[in-house]
Design brief:
Shape: globular
Number of helices: 17
Order of helices and strands: HHHEEEHEHEHEHHHHHHEHEHEHEHH
Structural class: alpha/beta
Distance between the termini: 44 Å
Strand content: 5-15%
Largest sheet: 8 strands, parallel, barrel
Low-confidence stretches: none
Bound molecules: flavin mononucleotide
CATH topology: TIM Barrel
Oligomer: single chain
CATH class: Alpha Beta
Number of strands: 10
Length: about 400
Amino acid sequence: MVKPVSVLDYRALAKKRLPHFLYEYFDGGSYAEQTLRRSTADLESVALRQRVLVDIMKLDLSTSLFGQDFKLPIALGPIGLAGIAARRGEIQAANAAHAAGIQFCLSTVGVCGLKEVAEAVKKPIWYQLYMIRDRGFMKELLDLAKEKNCSALFFTVDMPVPGTRYRDNRSGLAGSPGIKGAIRRTWQAVKRPGWAWDVGINGRPHSLGNVAPVLGDNTGLDDFFAWMRNNFDGSCTWKDLDFIRERWDRPLIIKGILDAEDARLATQVGADGIVVSNHGGRQLDGVPSTARALPAIADAVGDKLTVLADGGVRSGLDVVRMLALGAKGVLLGRAWAFALAGGGGAGVAHVLRLIEAEIKVAMALTGATRIDQIDSSILVQDDARRNVFGNV
Ligand SMILES: Cc1cc2nc3c(=O)[nH]c(=O)nc-3n(C[C@H](O)[C@H](O)[C@H](O)COP(=O)(O)O)c2cc1C
């Protein structure tokens, strides 16, 4: 394949490099994948307003979020099992993010645990947690996040139950327990010798670093998924935010808000921010895309908290679209996972350079020279409001 020049090229590369079941895991969504398709389609259909003869010689892409300064209005969002895409992948991605002047958010269910990542990188990272039934363990994770100087906590609320991902069942990742499933996956791995050598053999341990203390090292995929099913707390409500807030005095961001009413509730529980997200179309299929949900949510919360967004972002143009729809910052999801799978840390660094260049072009041609100038005024109102959102 020729040198990748876009996120979608990295997606193609990821498909070639990863064993089938892993590519399907990263790429797939839940059920019929309607929301997944909407996420990219709705975002793509947001038309940018071309403006000309504006002095664009000085473009400033920097921004500040939660009291921290960043070179770009993006961050690497939490991706479970990302470290299986390349050897100790979370560390490679975090280093690439920091080198680009942005943040990396480690998933609760990363391959590398917080201790490993924090000790391997030079700057503090962001950390994502699900509510875990065992509050004692939850407390330990929060204490470790404090000890390792994590500069923000992302509390993900859109997975009280896991959505079914048909592709994972078909590929053999899920629903293929025991030796038969293991043989199937091993066969898929054998067909990807580059990955098998880099990660399969030399990328061990293949555990979930953060939960290894309760799961033990080197457990199988079946154990991981069973642990997630059994330990994510479906009884968690807004009141349980107190548990987190009492033990976490740094920025707290609620990830997985898709409704203006929930966004308003988020302003009442002491959160510093929200991520408007449908979990990359991996939870309730049929819910709207972020692009569609975001404007009403941003209006509902105003300046009461910082609104981030993710879902379907595959280019710098998409980043600018999300900002124009009301986000202050954008999380990349699959975009960086594909880059990591396709080119390791260098792939992530490359994708970040590509996205930066694309943001610059989008800013230049919409006449915005600073991030805070990107708002709905850079969108073609008819397309942005009527076609995508139907009724405004
Ligand atoms: C393979 C995969 C694993 C994910 N794991 C997590 C996770 O562990 N925690 C979390 O809060 N979100 C997780 N997400 C959701 C992402 O953080 C993000 O919301 C989503 O990927 C954005 O959509 P996009 O990939 O289309 O950009 C995951 C998404 C994918 C694709």
